[in-house]
Amino acid sequence: MPDRSSRTLLWILIGGGAFFLFVLAMFSLIYLTLHAGGNEAAFGGFGDRIAVVDLDGVILSPQPVVGQLKKFADDSSIKAIILHVNSPGGGVAASEEIYREVKRIREEKKKRVVVSIETVGASGAYYIASASNKIYADQGSIVGSIGVIAEWVNYGDLLKWAKLKSVVFKTGEFKDTGNPTRDLTPAEQAYMQSLIDNMFGQFVQAVADGRSMKFDDVKAIANGKVWTGEQALSMKLIDNVGDFEAAVKDTAKSVGISGEPTLVRPEKERRTLLDLLVGDVSKYLPDREKMLEQQVGFYYLWK
Predict the structure, then answer these.
(1) Does residue 156 contact residue 180 with C-beta atoms inside 8 Å?
(2) Residues 256 and 280 occupy one common structural domain
(3) I want to staple 86 with a disulfide (CB 3.0 to 4.6 A). Which of 47, 74, 78, 118 is the partner?
(4) Average pLDDT, stretch 119-130?
(5) Confidence grade of residue 40 (pLDDT, cut at 50, 70, 90)
(6) Computed from CA positions of residues 193, 199, 202, 203, in that sequence, does the dihedral angle turn out positive or negative?
(7) Dist CA 56 CA 68 (whole Å)
(8) What is the pLDDT of residues 41-63, one digit of tens each?
């Protein structure tokens, strides 16, 4: 009887171990498949390759976009870069860093950079696009919103209602400018407006330089409005109305690629086995985009 129990336990352990190894092998295969798909056609079409970098969502950091652009700029097998844009813009400094990298690639690396705007290419995203060689947008794409915004919530009245007081120690008149527990003083309002006006001038100048337009002509339309791709074409804010495929074909032709070019995308972010097991939980966690409205900052952002 003890021998039979031992054999049963042994078979359970062997079966359980085999099942565990099978599950582990399946998840490993899925992981490797996802990881391998990150560099599309990486080994094909050497010399006839166009890199595609995605600029998605609110821009709160220049990374990973700047890093991806640098990598493709230094790769001699990459003949051109297409920045695929679907963004309402974001932080002033973050947008400017990406803009500078696009401009550097054009001027120093002499490599063609083309922007293809999908649904939205507004504010900071358009700031970046203005540094490229050519801008494509669909007829119904949202383009423009040249301007600067800074906003926060003033909850001073709520504190008064709750009989709470904000206590601040500071070293200068303007050190706590933007304190959400009180109104801005007239001097603070003038100070904040001067910062915004300076950033606005930088934005207008960047668009004027990139689009070969006069500063005053850009400033005349820089009232925060957005336009469709069709409208933006007549305003010289884009070069062609067309989708991503049109941008690819025209870019390939402009750099001397005959036939179908090989598109190369950045390697996808590595996912752990735990990610595969439990799925994506990021939507349940607070991120910087969700906290955007709780921060005092300056943004090239269409809202």
Answers:
(1) yes
(2) no
(3) 118
(4) 97
(5) very low
(6) negative
(7) 14
(8) 444 445 689 999 999 999 999 99
